[in-house]
UniProtKB/TrEMBL annotation:
EC number: 1.5.1.38
Annotated InterPro entries: Flavoprotein-like_sf, FMN_Rdtase-like_dom, NAD(P)H-dep_FMN_reductase, NADPH-dep_FMN_reduc_SsuE
Gene3D superfamilies associated with the record: 3.40.50.360
Protein name: NADPH-dependent FMN reductase
Organism: Saccharopolyspora oryzae
Top EC class of this enzyme: oxidoreductase
Molecular function per GO: FMN reductase (NADPH) activity
Residues passing through the membrane, by range: none
Residue ranges annotated for the NADPH-dependent FMN reductase-like domain, each copy included: 3-143
Lineage: Bacteria, Bacillati, Actinomycetota, Actinomycetes, Pseudonocardiales
Superkingdom, natural source: Bacteria
Keywords: Flavoprotein, FMN, Oxidoreductase
Pfam families xref list: FMN_red
Length: 186
């Protein structure tokens, strides 16, 4: 069974981005994937900002990345880029921390003017971390996500394309050798 790690890079507890990450986690779990959701905002700030990879929570989070076959990066868009919180976490990973993995870059934002932030800011980092395959990235407008009583709904203009991207990612996982750790398949 493929293991997927959803990494949410929003600093907000009420983040639509985090809820989209959870939505994707549920969809992938329903497809038979083992899914874990890492909310970077829950990591200890001192350890994260000082890059203390020996801190237990940071070591556990980086071990989860190493153990995953696929990574979903969910980030809000701030100042035409992905979140600094996500950047702080990605900076902790080894040079080829995504080697052998399928990666789905996903961003949310208030305007389509930020859609290229994924391709010009996040995708190069994904590739520099050695991702085996980065599937088509996806940008979701905040206004297309509604949360009522902890239930999320996605506007049809984004819901269909989001489902397609999740399906592409799911298919990409089938081509990834399971549990790639330090260049070896376990």
């Amino acid at each position: 069974m493929s293991r997927v790690l959803v990494i949410s890079g929003s600093p907000s507890r009420t983040s639509k981005t985090e809820r989209i990450g959870e939505h994707i986690a549920q969809r992938l779990s329903g497809a038979g994937r083992s899914v874990e959701h890492l909310r970077v905002r829950t990591l200890p700030a001192d350890a994260l900002l000082s890059a203390d990879t020996r801190a237990p929570a940071i070591a556990e989070a980086t071990a989860a990345v190493a153990a995953a076959d696929g990574i979903v990066l969910a980030t809000p868009t701030y100042k035409a880029s992905y979140s600094g919180l996500l950047k702080s976490f990605l900076d902790l990973l080894p040079q080829f921390g995504f080697a052998g993995k399928a990666v789905l870059p996903l961003a949310t934002g208030g305007t389509v003017a930020h859609v290229l932030a994924i391709d010009y800011a996040l995708r190069p980092v994904v590739h520099s971390l050695g991702a085996r395959h980065a599937v088509q990235s996806f940008f979701l407008l905040d206004k297309h996500v509604t949360v009522v009583d902890d239930e999320i709904s996605v506007h049809p203009d984004s819901g269909g394309p989001l489902a397609d991207v999740i399906e592409q990612f799911d298919k990409a996982l089938d081509g990834v050798p399971h549990t790639t750790v330090l260049g070896r398949t376990a």
